[in-house]
Amino acid sequence: MIEETLTLQAAVVASRRLIPYAAVASSILFAVAPLHDIRRIRQSRNTLSLPFLPFFLYVVQSMMFLLYALATSNALLMFTTSLGSILGTFYVWSYYKHMNDKTSARKWFLGGGGLLFMLGVIATAFDAQDAALWIGIPGNAVMVMTAVSPLAKASHIVRTQDASSLPVGMSVMNAVAGGFWTIYGVLLDDILVTFPNAVSTIVGLIQVHAANLDAYESNT
After folding, report:
1. CB-based burial of residue 169 (10 Å sphere; 0-12 exposed, 13-18 middle, 19+ buried)?
2. Where, if anywhere, are coiled coils annotated (predicted)?
């Protein structure tokens, strides 16, 4: 009985140590997940009815948390968010290049650029603790927006019974990465980590389910 208890405790300790690394690994996978959809866009020279906002909000989210990582001197977060910022910029540029009407995208660029500029000033002017708070809260809000943004096409999906407008790679990684980061947030007892990632997990699962239903109906 004592040996079983010690084994269980060792497993719990090991899990606590592994979860942060799993969360970081899932963030890296999230960063490369949209490559398939972007490759399709570039090959067809068309946006394929995929929504703009998931790609745009992802790069804004990555840049915001890069500022957060710089403010808090978090090397691991700097790596994952730098990767997300670079790849996210490539995704947005590829999408924007093939848009027919670029007006709404330009408005989002203006708003996102203004927000990032303001947070950049905060990151340099405030001490680390205050900067982390002022960047972290809007960063979490953008994270939730990123997770739910594919559902902007929900009415189209319901009307046409076609889920091809969902960015499936991002939806899958919303569920996977969100799950790991939710567990990590619980371990940290940090609601600012737990809540937005729990939302991402739930919304990601809904999107994956919709895509699977569409694939099943297409094959029957």
Report:
1. middle
2. none
